[in-house]
Predict the 3D structure of the following.
Amino acid sequence: MKKIWFLGYFLLLLSGCSSHYVKNYEAQKESINEPNLGMQTKAFVGESILKQGQLTRSDVLHFDKETNIKGLVFYKIYAGDYLKVGEEGNDNYYSLQEMRSGLVVQKSGSAAVPAAIKTFQDKPGIVCIPYEWGGGPMLCQKEVDYSTRTITFLNNNDYEQEIIYLGKSGNKLSFQYRLKIGNGHSTSSESYQFEHSLSDSSIVQYKGAEIKVITANSSNIEYVIVKGLNSIQ
């Protein structure tokens, strides 16, 4: 009796579940403003003294290595991270596209068009592929090595800008400004170096930011952010 029950349960997992999926998950936007205005802060050469931006926070499904979901047909999932797109009860659904490389889950010639990657909170280790047109059973695989986590990243139109302390020579302070902008599966970046003479003022001004220098030497700087950088958007 136990063997018959186990076999029936195994077949249900692999071929009896309906190919249903949902896309109702919304990633969260997260603002960065470091350090707080008016707070005296110390930074060393090579460290950021001011960082601002808008990033995206999302759950992802992670595969350390290439994984095949296979039966009479197969689906190849590339190593990497897949953004969450939906959730319903214990079921979680993830994008078919690896977020950094842009590689999409590959199917064998006769396999149905995939719609998402599906996992179950109450059945760890099982990965299924729902089909684009729904209906019928899904192809699932047991004992799959994967993990889930929450990441923060530069999505479309997200940005991160920062000023980095490069040191002091004589009475001049050196800084680097960096800007990163999310653009699909890639990130565009800009970088500029600039100097400020303490003979002119103890307030460093750059792209709208105002930084009051308390003390500075060739290895570190103590400062207060009076005003932040101009917004990119």
Notes: Residues 1-16 have pLDDT under 50 and may be disordered. Residues 34-53+158-227 form one domain. The CA atoms of residues 32 and 118 lie 32 Å apart. The longest helix spans residues 2-16.
